[in-house]
């Protein structure tokens, strides 16, 4: 059974060869997935080699006879067929690859890898999206947050491949950094050009491989203890995983909001939440009541109506404060409601509105300083926030080139000290600059990722 108690690198290679085994050992992978062969390659120390096979008993038996340590199978379309295979080969099926619509299936004791996400990095050569005039970032943070929110009992694992013609070798580093930030993993498949370059000794491929090995060594040495607990102050309620709600969540992450996902029927307010957004669907009546109570206790609830249906009742007992842009403002108890008149049709525009609503909630009432994390002059950097004993961890991930210039970053709250960790460098303290309701620091570049650990000021 694969248990992701620490960070586990799962490397997939398109051939069952000694070269594949050697590369897995160099990388520090815990698992190597290769096609079925007559005999399993000799495994380096610490590497388990498993075979990717069809979901049928004959292939699974063949992998066992060939000396593999287990198999990875795609989930059959019908769940009873999967249940039968798991019952028959319980300890030998190590990974089950699931379509997003199958993500709810319990495949234990195997690892559930969901076929979602995409090769991360910048979309085009110039990296600019025409619709947003911002860097077009392909990221998977919103997918990990969906899996964390809907299936909190298991580690989130993604199963995707780079495009056939991809030359974005750095996507491998980013994919592992994303998975690590959420205490999860990814089935790591390298671009074909990178593998071929490694085989012929290409300098660029060799350099990229060296950097990837450095990132893996860093992530393995810094594997956090305990489960992932979001430190975001923003909750987003998602009714189901489809193209509409995926893009709404994706664009919120792209605006560096790092929201925590709650299933629309299972909202559970926790300490530290300040905002809850429920858009383009009508939450069940008990959840609507929870959201109203959340607002009355001091939170802010952002609502957009479900398309084609009359708006749900939200404003009983609330006091209208006026209109601001596309939303009506209401006071409810010690908190507030922000009610959009129309459904969200443009996820990017909505993400900007959400950023403004969250950012303006600060002691000065201006400047977007209410954001959990704010980053200046680094548009290709996205943050992931998690809570640890006594404070918060901020993982900064660079989706473009590695940044060789300082940039300013800040985090809301009171913090007494902070430590910076980056691949290839020792831990160093950060000098925190105190501001109204937040602190800021100068981030000394970003060699793919950085981990900033902050200790709360209890005064």
Structural summary, described in words:
- The chain is an alpha/beta fold and 459 residues long.
- The protein has helices spanning 18-27, 57-65, 79-88, 141-150, 171-181, 192-200, 203-221, 243-254, 285-296, 347-359, and strands at residues 10-12, 31-35, 48-52, 71-74, 93-98, 111-114, 121-122, 137-138, 157-159, 185-189, 234-238, 260-263, 275-279, 300-304, 319-324, 327-332, 335-340, 373-375, 381-388, 391-398, 407-412, 415-421, 428-430, 433-435, 438-443, 449-456.
- The chain has 10 helices and 26 strands.
- Strands 6-5-4-3-2-1-10-9 form an 8-stranded parallel sheet. It has a 7-stranded mixed sheet with strand order 12-11-13-14-17-16-15. Strands 19-20-26-22-23 form a 5-stranded antiparallel sheet, with helices on one face.
- The mean pLDDT is 94.
- The protein is globular and about 75 Å long.
- It has 3 domains: 10-221, TIM Barrel; 234-359; 373-456, Sandwich (Immunoglobulin-like).
- α5 runs parallel beside α7 (203-221), α6 crosses α7 and α8 (243-254) packs across α10 (347-359).
Summarize the structure.
The protein is an alpha/beta fold. The protein is built from ten helices and 26 strands.
